[in-house]
Structure formats: C-alpha cells, structure tokens
Design brief:
The complex is a heterotrimer. In chain A, 34% of the residues lie in helices and 15% in strands. Chain A is α/β, with parallel strands linked by helices. Chain B contains eleven helices and twelve strands. Classes of the chains: A alpha/beta, B alpha/beta, C alpha/beta.
Chain lengths: 337, 380, 413
C-alpha cells in the first residue's frame, strides 16, 4: 500500500501547466474576457476578471457569484465572456466550484467526457466570499481531490447593491448602511477580516493561497497561473479599488491599489505548499527596505473616509502598525508574542 | 388642468445627487404653486455605475388623477423638458445593451426644450444631437459638467442654476418665484437663490427644426421573443478575434456588438504614437479591454469600447504620450492609429491641437478639500 | 436498517438476469436507482428521515457497487448548489432532504428549476420545525410547487424505485429539463422494508438513455454564458419559457409510463391510481402512504354496500386536472384528505384540497368537495379515521354537512 500523502489524496486529473509570464511583454495578446460589460469607469474588479481569464486561458470554466461581476458585468444579451461562464448564488461560490469540478472528475473518470485538464475558477466579491459564502468556500478547500480556484474580488463593500458595508469593509468607511451622522461619526466599527490567512491557516493542506492587487497585473496573473497549475483547491484574494464605492476619480484606480500596499493596509503574500512568502512591496516592508507610507496618504484620497478626523486616522494607523510590528507573522498571522 | 414632466439625463454616481436635488427641487417648487408631484430614478439604472448614462424624472400635476398615469412608470416618454447634466451625453446615451444608442432628445415632446449644461455654442451642440421628427428648443446654461462622487457633494450651484433655467424655459411647470422659494426652503442659502435667478435671466433658447441635427443613424437591436430566445437562460459567448481586418499581425479582441459603452465616455485618450515606447502598460491595465494591438506593435484605444476612465493616461510612463481630452472635441470614433499611419505630420498637428488646452474636467473626488478649491477657481 | 450486502452485485445478478426480489425500504429502493442509473454526482447532508437513502448510497460506493463523486456538503444550501452546477456540466445527479433542510436549500431549489437543470431529489417528507417532529407532513415538498419542480408522491417502496427511474427519464428529456422531487412519507417509506423487485442493468439501460445536456452543456468546447443578469425587458419571456417546459412535461410523463409499463411489465396509470372507482358514488382523494389505510377502509365499506372509491394523486406537478375531472366528475361528493396545511387558505383546507376544488370547478355539474386534514406530524391515519371521513362525505353529498369548511380528523379537542 502506498503511503497516504496530500498528493495521493489529490485529483486523478492532471492540471494545465501554466508557466509564469516573465514581464508584461511576454503576456499573450488573446483576451477571454472583453467588452460588453457595464462596470464602472476604472473598475479594477473588471480588470481582475480580464487578467484572470487571460491567465487561465481558453480551457477554463468560470463561475460567478452574485455581485458587481454578475449584475454590472454579465448582463443578459451583452456578455463579455469568451470562455464558458455560469452564474451562481451569492453564498455558493465554493459549491459552484465543487459541483463543477466533481462533474468533470466523475464524467472523465467514467469516460463520459474526453479526459483533459480544465480550469475551474469560481469568483465572488467580498459579500459572496468574506461574508455569506465563507462556509461553502471553507468546505470546497477541504476537497483535495478537486482542482479548483476560488478568486475573491474584494472591493470592500456590497458595491453592486448600492454600496453597503461588508465584513471586508475597512474600519469607519462611509457606506449606505454605515453613513456618518450628527451623533455617530463612525458607524462601521468592525475591522476588515483577515480572510486569506484565515483560510490558509484553517486548511493547511491547500497547496496555494495568495493575495493580489490589480495594480500589479503581471504578478496577479502569474499567481492565478500558479494556483491553477499546482492543483487541488486554491484561494486567491484580490483587493480591487472601486471608484464608485470608495469615491475617487477613476483614473486613480491603479494608484490607490499601490497605496493600499505601500501603507501596509493590504499585504501581498503567497502560501505555497505551506511555505509563506511575502511579495513585492510587502516583502520589502518586512525586510525594512521600504518604509510604510502613512495610512492618511491612502485614506484622504477616498471620499468614503472624508468624515474622518485625526483620531480616526490614528486608530487605523495604530491597527496597521500592529499588523507589521506586533503580529506573530507580520501582515499575515496575528497573536501577539 | 395640466401635467408637466421633466427628464434629467446624467452620469451615474458622479451626478446622482445633482439629479436628485434637481428633481426634488422641481416637486418642492410645484408644491409652492399648490400642485403635487413625484420624483424618481429609472429603476433599471439602480445600482448605478459611475459614468454610465442614467435618468431621473420629476412629474408635476394639478390633480392626483392626472398624476396617477405616472405613478407606476419607469420612463415617461413624452417629456416637456429633457435636462442634460453633461453635454457629452448629447451624442446619445446607451444605458443597457439591446437599448442601442438612444438619441438624447428621444423622449422629448414636440416643441419641448432640451436644457443642457455646456460651454459649447448651441450651433455646435446641435451638430452632435441626432435629428428628431418634430421641432424643439435647445437651451444651455454655461458651465462645465459638475462631477462629484457619492459621499461628498460638489456644491457648485449647478443644481439650482438648472432649476432657475427650467423656470425660464417651462414656466408652466414651475414659475421662477416658486423655484426661488423652494431653494430658500431647502438650502437656506441666499447665494444659491441668487445663482438660480442669474441662470434664469441668462438662459436663452434656440429653436431646432424638425430633422435638424446629426443624421448619424444610432445603432439599435431587435429584442427577440420567448420562442426565439435560447432556453435555459443561455446566451452564446462572444468569439475571440485575431488579426486586424485586412492586415497581418496585431490583435483585436472579440467585442460584444450589443453593448459598446462609449456613451459612458466624457474624455478620451489621444495617443502620441511617435513617443510611444510600446511598454504595453496602457493595454495591460485597461479594465475595458479596449486597446487593439496594431500590426506594428502599437496599442490604440478602440473608441467604440473605451469608456474614458483615464487609467491608461495614469499608467503611461511617457509624458504626454497618452492624454485625456474632453470628448466634446471629437465628432467620430475613428482610429487614431490609422490616421497616424496615413499621415504622420497631419496626425501630429491634429494631436497638438487636441491636447493644446488641458481638459477642463474633473471626475469626482481627488482629495479632501478639492471641491472647495475647484469651486473657488471656477467662480474666480 | 440493514446495510446492503457487500456482495450486492452478485446478489442482484449479472447481465440479463431480470429482476430480483429484495426486502428493502423506499430509501434503499431509491439508492438502487442511483446505482442502476449510474449517477455521477451525489451530495448528502444529514437530516431525518431522507438521510437513510444516503446511508445506503455511501455504503454501496464504499463497497464498489457503483462509481460516482459522493460529497457530504456543509449545508443543504451547498448540497443542492453542488449538484445544480454538476448538472449544468452534464453530470447525472441525485440529492435529497427533509423538512426544514429542504427549506434551508430553498434558494438553490428555486434557481435549479429556473435554470432548467434536471435533477432527481428524494424528499423524505417531514414536519417543519418548530417543534422538531420527525414524522410525515407534506408541507416541505409542497413549498416548491410554484417554481417549476415536478413533484410526485409514492405509496410503496416498489413505486419509489419505479418512479425514480421514470423521474430521471422525464427530467433529463430536452423537452423538459426540469428537476423532479420524489416524495416518500417519513418513517412509512424511509424506515420500513418491504419486498421490492429490483430490475437488472439491462432493463434500466433499455429504458433510461444517458443524460445529454446538448448545446446547453457548460464546457470549454461550448463557450456559453448561463444566467446573465436580466431586467424587466426579458424576465417575462424567460418565465414563459419555463411555463412551456412545465406544460410539455405532461406529454413526456405519459410517454415514459407507456414505455416503462411495456418494458417492466407494470400497469401504472401515469398521474393517478384509481381504487374501486368504477361504480363509486363518492370518492376520497389523497397522496402517499395514506393510500394504505384508505384502501382497507374502502374495502370494509364496500362490504357494507357503501359505494366509495379512492383516487391517489401520484403527480402533484404537473397537476392532473384533466384526469381528476374525468375520474371525479360523476361523483356526488369528493373528500380530499390533506397531510399538510395551508393556514388561512380558502375553506381553511390543505393544498391538495384547494387544487382539486379548482380543478373540478369548471365542470358542468361539479361534485361537492369537502376537505379534511389528517395524519400531521406522522400521526397514524387509521381505517376507522377513513370510515369516519367517508361518512362525512356521504353527509355532504346529501347536504347534511357544510362542504364549505375543512374537518380535522383524529385531532384531540
């Protein structure tokens, strides 16, 4: 009897070998997500969909949970998708990926479908992923024998339904459910969930968990390619600046993503087969090669924080400092020593 | 006994509060005259996308009975006045796929008034507006489109100026006195009252004859019925494309023909191909996949797919290689790259002229205090 | 519960060995259909009493009796969403639930029908919480009656097996492409065993073609977009398409029963079972295992010369209005016994009562309809209860009982 390993518990199906693209000039010209969507000007989640589809290529199936990337993005009669796409319910991202991967596995094993590696990618917003869908995503990450990627496009609110607060909205943000008022300046007092690290820590056999930001497009695509190649259930969490919900001029989408990373509010890292690696600016922050910018530089650029006063900026700064100076693993795992 | 309805066409999110202030202001003014009214947004526009054309309406009547007709409608289709909060909307609005491109005056009644916020002359505007079977008036208030985001409102008085102008072009809906009274009630601000009065006095109308204006045919689509629609809520994905038609190499993405999105655009990128280093960043970072790769390896924005977000300008490392220019400076969606390949000198001259005066447009929130600065500059 | 034999394959017999007899429950009978139909994806989540089917299925898989992807989900919502998506890729799927579990999956149940995705589910009918009674009530499955699900109720383990095979054939017919739920009364069918004829693989293969999703299959070779968001400009057309599919299901069901009867030597009438109806003057109408005590009582009363018959409704969706008009049109009075409630409904009856009454209304001379509620929460419906009920129906026929009210049978005052 061969010994039991994570590999031996894995899928009998091969994955596609998707090598990283070394630099923007090596990125293929083909597009599998193109125009026809009604997303906002400068929508970074739409940009993430495009990068993801490019990275996955034509032999992919995309499943999209309710959210901006459904309602604004995939409208009847005007789909932007070149690859097969199917809607799934708000809380069903994990289930959609599981069901699709299970069907491919069963039918290919039984000879009911030609055997080939097909990427299964299920996308959800922060509402679908961080809030309602967390339970099903957790369950999906336990099925080591299915090849699937769950990609959370986090624009930090239920931006589609009219910008309501989610478990992934930053502290104090103005949303239609947490408006600043005469008596209560701060209505949203929860701290953003540490979702990627929570899922990585809670599902140690998952071979790839990562965080990305669309301001670094080649890195984001290569991480999607790595997740799809490595096989088994994988998870990527992307921070997508949202001009509508965050309230800023769409031309700043790219810049705000960079600021989120440079202020340390959005750490970039990957956990590959249990090995943690900080990435890009976040790695340089940890190594002391890059001094984190003050969170003000990021917050003051967004209308959703226009009601902030000094003590609010200071609180966010303090909590962010803790992430990098006090956490057991800076930017990733809390628990003070 | 009479009913009057006003359609306000605006840019999603950026002008949502502006449109709301106008429509509510109309109803408050009507109440001053003992009338009743309703204000509402076109439901299918909500949730709004920033930049995408959206609509709100105000309807005022003498009696409940007259108003009933409008109480369960999304889009009244015979409006006394169509207000346009941004003059680039005059080129037509495409709110959804399968609507096609709606002429801005489509829902305007015969002999109604199209009231536009613009710095352009009436004659220049008329050229951009699709012709209509019946005559109407065109009025403008001189101003740049007022864009702010959802959480912070840029109070540059555009709302009350349009209300004042409305009283001038459609006094049968609301009189100037009731408008000024309503503004005083709502904002308790004499400056806003004065702005409304000033706009009223300055507003002038030009009559536009039947069939006068742009004769471009707006694109449109037939909506199939249930026997023709595919079952199982299925639509066919769009085909990947390849080479630029009639040329070797390059790459043009497949693009959905039923939603072009360019009527969302208020500024467009113009590209200086002679300084372009082909670094790929504009192409790589475009959320709307609007850049074609030309056979000679340049990246050019396809003007039917571009919605003018400006990210390409922001990420371009070369000074003035990509410059966002006010959409009003363009008549067509022609390829810049083809113009450039045909006549490089001619293109350089064209480019220089386009980017000469910097875009006098700002799309929403940049930083705390910015709107106050802008208002100060505008009034000075 | 007897777990299935580890040597099941031999016991059932190899190719061409025809049917074999097994002492099994309705749940185990349906688990055999999962094996014989070569189901590709099955999802389970624990709740009494339907879960017995998954206990048999999992044992069969463990024993290698058949091959499928078997997933224990983390909630009923996920359980039904997983098979919904598997069906979209072209996999044959099976699922099931009971009571509030079925309700927890409600969102998934709605979209599965809306998306025109075939699925066969077993509902082990159970009372809704609170309180958490395990016994049978039909309110769980009935809750989806307006959504496009095909619904049927069976009386015996044999009928459960046969109906499950028919359900796959109908649900996966491209003219239909709708999900189907087979309701088995909790305890009486899920937990008690009877002799059942289990067909051979050849017999099943001759009746049930493979599931072919055709050009609706979600696959890279067929790059379609399924269920993009639509607004009021499209939704009525989409609903009308589902209405057409539900209408077409009727004919496809009749076809399937004709073929099934021929190949399996049964004599099912597709939508109804009629018992001693030939010269009946009054009729009782019901669904599920209630048919047993009713038949006993009908025979008893026949001996006493009372001309009473019984009509058991097999398929509630599509609803057999035409068949019921034909079967009940000549009656003096009809008594409908619901094992469910619809509080505040017309005449305070159950759901079956309301539908039967409206089906008979257009008749020239429509019989009096009097409605009853019995057996809630799994309470036994006895032959004496049925006799009591029938006497009331005769009274109604003679105008001695108000037929505008609903009467609760076997309830303490």
């Amino acid at each position: 009897m061969p010994e039991t390993t994570v590999e031996s518990l894995g899928s009998f199906l091969e994955t596609q070998v998707l090598d990283p693209w070394k630099g923007p000039k090596k990125v293929i010209p083909e597009e599998y997500y193109t125009s026809g969507h009604r997303t906002c000007q400068g929508c970074e989640s739409a940009q993430l969909m495009r990068l993801m589809a490019k990275a996955g290529g034509p032999r992919s199936i995309i499943l999209g949970a309710t959210g901006c990337m459904y309602v604004a993005n995939t409208t009847y009669y005007s789909t932007p998708w070149v690859v097969p796409w199917m809607h799934t319910q708000l809380g069903s991202t994990g289930s959609a990926a599981t069901g699709t991967a299970a069907a491919l596995t069963a039918m290919m094993r039984k000879g009911k479908m030609t055997k080939e590696p097909i990427n299964v990618i299920a996308v959800c917003g922060d509402g679908g992923g961080v809030d309602m869908g967390l339970s099903a995503i957790s369950a999906a990450l336990q099925h080591l024998h299915y090849n699937l990627l769950i990609l959370c496009y986090d624009n930090e609110s239920y931006a589609n339904t009219d910008i309501q607060v989610s478990g992934s909205s930053p502290y104090g943000a103005n949303t239609t459910f947490t408006p600043p008022g005469k008596v209560h300046r701060i209505m949203h007092k929860r701290w953003k969930k540490n979702t990627a690290a929570m899922l990585a820590a809670g599902h140690p056999d998952v071979k790839y968990v990562g965080t990305v930001c669309t301001s670094y497009p080649v890195d984001a695509m290569n991480m999607v390619r790595k997740a799809l190649s490595i096989g088994g259930p994988t998870f990527i969490h992307s921070l997508d600046p949202c001009p509508k919900g965050w309230d800023y001029d769409p031309k700043y989408s790219h810049e705000l993503g960079e600021l989120a990373v440079e202020t340390g509010m959005w750490p970039l890292y990957e956990i590959e087969r249990g090995k943690l690696k900080m990435l890009g600016r976040s790695q340089r922050i940890v190594n002391g090669q890059f001094k984190r910018k003050p969170v003000r530089e990021y917050l003051m650029r967004q209308g959703r924080f226009a009601h902030f006063i000094d003590e609010d900026y200071d609180y966010v700064q303090k909590k962010t400092d803790e992430m990098w100076e006090k956490w057991l693993i800076p930017g990733v795992i809390p628990f003070f020593e | 006994m009479s009913t009057g309805s006003v359609e306000v066409v605006y840019r999603g999110i950026f002008q949502k509060t502006l449109a709301k202030n106008i429509c509510r202001g109309i109803v408050f003014a009507a109440i001053k005259e003992g009338k009743i009214g309703i204000a509402f947004g076109r439901y299918s526009d909500s949730p709004e996308r920033n930049g995408i054309p959206a609509k709100q309406f105000a309807v005022v009547s003498d009696t409940e009975e007259e108003l009933q007709e409008y109480l369960s409608r999304y889009e009244p289709d015979n409006n006394d006045v169509t207000m346009v909060a941004d003059d680039t909307l005059c080129k037509g609005v495409e709110s959804w796929a399968w609507y096609g491109l709606q002429p801005i005056n489509k829902l305007l009644a015969k002999d109604g008034t199209l009231l536009v916020t613009s710095t352009q002359s009436a004659n220049k505007l008329i050229k951009t507006i699709h012709r209509k079977g019946s005559p109407y008036d065109l009025a403008t208030i001189k101003a740049q489109a007022s864009f702010s985001g959802l959480w912070v409102y840029k109070d540059d008085h555009t709302d009350v100026r349009l209300l004042g102008a409305l009283a001038k072009v459609a006094p049968h809906i609301v009189s100037l006195d009731s408008v000024l009274e309503a503004i005083k009630d709502q904002w308790k601000d004499d400056k806003k009252v004065a702005s409304a009065k000033k706009a009223h006095d300055e507003t002038e109308s030009t009559s536009v004859g039947a069939e006068q204006g742009s004769d471009a045919e707006p694109f449109s689509f037939d909506m199939p019925g249930y026997t023709k629609m595919e079952e199982g809520l299925v639509i066919r994905g769009i085909a990947a494309k390849g080479d630029i038609p009639g040329r070797d190499g390059g790459f043009v993405p497949g693009r959905n023909p039923t939603f072009k999105k360019y009527s969302t655009r208020t500024m467009r990128p113009v590209i200086n191909f002679s300084t372009c280093t082909k670094c790929t960043l504009c192409w790589l970072n475009c959320p709307d996949t609007c850049f074609d790769i030309t056979p000679d390896g340049f990246y050019e924005a396809n003007m039917e797919a571009c919605c003018g977000c400006g990210v390409c300008e922001a990420v371009c490392p070369v000074k003035e290689c990509v410059t966002m220019v006010n959409e009003e400076a363009f008549e067509d969606n022609d390829s810049q790259w083809e113009l450039w390949t045909k006549d490089k000198d001619g293109y350089s001259a064209w480019l220089a002229e386009k980017i000469a005066n910097p875009p006098a447009r700002s799309h929403g929130f940049h930083h705390i205090g910015q709107y106050a600065e802008e208002i100060a500059n505008e009034s000075s | 519960m007897n777990p299935p034999s580890t040597a099941l394959a031999e016991k059932i017999g190899g190719p061409g060995s025809g049917e074999t007899e097994e002492l099994i429950s309705g749940s185990e009978a349906i688990s055999h259909v999962c094996r014989l139909a070569d189901v590709d994806v099955i999802t389970a989540y624990p709740i009494r009493p339907y879960d017995t089917v998954m206990q048999y299925v999992s044992q069969m898989i463990a024993n290698g009796d058949f091959d499928c992807e078997y997933i224990v989900a983390e909630s009923e919502h996920s359980q039904f969403e997983i098979v919904k998506h598997a069906s979209a890729v072209g996999a044959r799927v099976f699922c099931g639930s009971s009571g509030v579990g079925w309700f927890y999956a409600f969102e998934a149940l709605a979209v599965t029908a809306g998306l025109r995705l075939p699925m066969v589910a077993m509902v082990g009918n159970r009372a809704l919480d609170d309180p958490g009674a395990f016994g049978v009530e039909h309110n769980d499955a009935l809750a989806v009656r307006d959504l496009g699900w095909m619904l049927n109720w069976v009386e015996t383990a044999q009928e459960a097996l046969d109906t499950a095979l028919i359900a796959y054939r109908v649900a996966e017919d491209p003219r239909v492409f709708l999900p189907c739920a087979i309701s088995c009364d909790g305890a009486f069918l899920t937990h008690s065993q009877a002799i059942v004829k289990v067909p051979s693989q050849e017999m099943v293969d001759s009746f049930l073609p493979p599931y072919d999703r055709g050009d609706k299959q979600l696959h890279p070779d067929n790059p379609i977009t399924i269920a993009p968001q639509a607004n009021e400009d499209w939704l009525m057309e989409m609903r009308r398409q589902n209405d057409q599919a539900a209408r077409r299901a009727r004919g496809v069901i009749i076809e399937a029963y004709e073929d099934f009867n021929a190949k399996f030597g049964r004599d099912y009438e597709p939508f109804l079972e009629r018992y001693m109806m030939d010269d009946a003057e009054v009729a009782l109408v019901g669904m599920g295992t209630m048919g047993m005590p009713v038949k006993v009582a009908v025979r008893k009363m026949r001996e006493q010369g009372k001309k009473v018959g019984f009509v058991r409704v097999r398929w509630f969706r599509p609803f057999p209005a035409v068949e019921l008009q034909e079967a009940l049109g000549g009656m003096q009075a009809v008594g409908v016994i619901d094992r469910d409630y619809s509080f505040g409904s017309s005449h305070h009856s159950g759901t079956l009562g309301t539908e039967v009454r409206s089906a008979l209304y257009p008749l020239e001379k429509s019989p009096k309809v009097v409605t009853f509620i019995a057996g809630l929460g799994g309470r036994e419906v006895t032959a004496d209860n049925v006799v009591e009920t029938t006497d009331m129906v005769f009274d109604a026929a003679e105008g001695k009982l108000n037929d505008q009210d609903t009467y609760w049978i076997g309830v303490r005052e």
